[in-house]
Amino acid sequence: xxxxxxxxxxxxxxxxxxxxxxxxxxxxxxxxxxxxxxxxxxxxxxxxxxxxxxxxxxxxxxxxxxxxxxxxxxxxxxxxxxxxxxxxxxxxxxxxxxxxxxxxxxxxxxxxxxxxxxxxxxxxxxxxxxxxxxxxxxxxxxxxxxxxxxxxxxxxxxxxxxxxxxxxxxxxxxxxxxxxxxxxxxxxxxxxxxxxxxxxxxxxxxxxxxxxxxxxxxxxxxxxxxxxxxxxxxxxxxxxxxxxxxxxxxxxxxxxxxxxxxxxxxxxxxxxxxxxxxxxxxxxxxxxxxxxxxxxxxxxxxxxxxxxxxxxxxxxxxxxxxxxxxxxxxxxxxxxxxxxxxxxxxxxxxxxxxxxxxxxxxxxxxxxxxxxxxxxxxxxxxxxxxxxxxxxxxxxxxxxxxxxxxxxxxxxxxxxxxxxxxxxxxx
Length: 427
Ligand code: GLU
Description:
The chain has helices at 2-7, 17-29, 36-43, 91-107, 128-142, 161-175, 196-214, 232-243, 266-276, 290-294, 333-341, 349-352, 355-369, 375-400, 404-423, and strands at residues 47-56, 62-73, 79-86, 113-120, 151-155, 224-228, 247-253, 256-259, 286-288, 300-303, 322-324, 345-347. 46% of the residues lie in helices and 17% in strands. Helix 2 packs across helix 15, helix 4 crosses helix 15 and helix 13 crosses helix 14 (375-400). The protein is an alpha/beta fold. A hairpin with a 5-residue loop joins strand 1 (47-56) and strand 2. The protein binds glutamic acid. The site of glutamic acid has 12 residues, from strand 3 and helix 13. Glutamic acid (GLU) binds next to strand 3 and helix 13.
């Protein structure tokens, strides 16, 4: 118990992600003509689970860990959402991320509700064996809650395709047969989808290109892009932006970033990152801090790290004309207002980073049908859904005279509310 308490962060975040999620919801519902009971119902998570479980460390000692899984909504289908391993995980953060998954899936029109899970752990502090044991024990604690027809986990910050494979194996061993559709984001050889690894970053860049078209900026080689975060989302966004001909001037990870006004050679950066595990000391670049990255001279800023990065402290110093949110909840409501006042276009998280869950949906469909698609088909369908969702959101923004964040939230909340009305309250 002492170990569990030591693992539990007691001090609240300065700005909690849940505060952001609820503030966005409260703002969006003001534009909708919805009964109070519907508004109230959708504000609550449907179920919340906390699990405390033991893991044997390599030194033979048992350590307790705390994990969560929150199902925000199951109105439109089984709940869907990633699992995060991080020392910043709190129940409030998981609640926020689950709520955003509900809106994200509704916005891009895939038949899912929203969920999220998290374990309070620094995955880098564990050996591979410890990581596997922690994952298998957490997965077995989740057995009563997950199934291919009720709740389907996926990767998120700090989790990988290998971790998804262990979850799939643990579930399959428990029920006695292989169930690939229990998680998405798996390695391809056990039922993962082509293109899932690249999907979120690719979707971010698809949104960037549509937004730039609307802003009348189509010369990609003259468009400078800065990307915060070099995990799955940031690194794949950088790779695809480079492939599309953008000038990627800055990228960063938790330790800091690198900058080159003439553009970074992203394939070389990716090799350097793979070899050294960090971005620092990349040749032909200057070091810069994360704050400097967010406020550097660029046309497009892609926050792809984590929540609460663009705040009232730095929003007025941002030089980009377009912000495309690769992370979930990177911008606080206070910063949203500053960005809006300054006339900066922002493509919100639930739209911009939806590519991940869209290809997760394709993976689930392929697993349920035991029929694999090729990569071209995956990317063609991803492109179709992202572009349709982008222009659907633009239409709502014009109709209500609101920014893209409000338009995305309005669209998503309206869809869940309509389904809820049709289904009715039980009993
Ligand atoms: N964790 C990702 C997200 O935040 C993907 C979730 C999924 O694929 O289910 O959208």
